[in-house]
Amino acid sequence: MPDTLFTAPATFTVAQRIALHRRPLPSHELTGQNFRTWAVAVCHAEVQHRSRDFARIERELNISFDRIEDPSCEERGQYPHEAKAATALIWLSHLQTHESEKRAPFDAKAWRDWPAARRAAWLARRRYLWAGFLKAVRAYRDARALIDQPLAA
Fold first, then answer.
1. Is the residue at 115 inside a domain?
2. How far is CA 105 from the centre of its chain?
3. Using CA atoms in the order 88, 94, 96, 98, what is the torsion angle rounded to 10 degrees?
4. Domain boundaries, position 36
5. Is the dihedral of CA 67, 70, 72, 78 positive or negative?
6. Residue 32 lies in a domain
7. Structural domains in the chain (count)
């Protein structure tokens, strides 16, 4: 006798079977944090939940994926807000890497000694990366809001 009332039809793909078993991370509101700290904590939690939930489903369905041949296997059945959280973390990674160039030990010149054109280019790139990060976090928030909405009766 099956342990659930609903079993996936044999015609379902593996991704559809995984999506059927997925559960979103419970809503999480963090207060008292600045925006960047909040975004890192929430987006990281979403990506980690996706990994743990995928591993749980692998065990439940008794399936296994070769992560060397298919490194993005955890993206099967993921929620849209989890994909957007991962995108926000990628933007943040680029932003942090760019910001570290300003204080890098391998750069012999201090910020104040940079030529004006180099500083302007650095600031323009930072604005671009920051805007991309903000856009990605907003997209995550919008997608997450769809999950958190109560079902209409």
1. yes
2. 30
3. -150
4. 14-148
5. negative
6. yes
7. 1
| 103 C-beta neighbours (distance < 10 Å), count | 9
Q: Model-level pTM?
A: 0.80
Per-residue pLDDT of the chain (153 residues; tens, 9 = 90+): 455 545 556 677 777 778 788 888 887 777 777 889 999 999 999 999 988 888 888 888 888 877 788 777 777 778 899 999 999 999 999 999 999 888 877 777 888 889 999 999 999 999 999 999 999 999 999 999 988 776 555
Non-local CB neighbours of 143 within 8 Å, separated by 6+ positions: 79, 80, 81, 84
Please count the other Cβ atoms lying within 10 Å of the Cβ belonging to residue 102: 14
Number of Cα atoms under 13 Å in the Cβ half of residue 102: 13
Side-chain-side CA neighbours of residue 43 (13 Å): 25
Q: Which letter, b or e, does each residue of 59-98 get, where b requires 16 or more Cβ atoms within 10 Å of its Cβ?
A: eeeeeeeeeeeeeebbebbbbebbbbbbbbbebbeebeee
Give the CA radius of gyration of the chain. Answer: 21
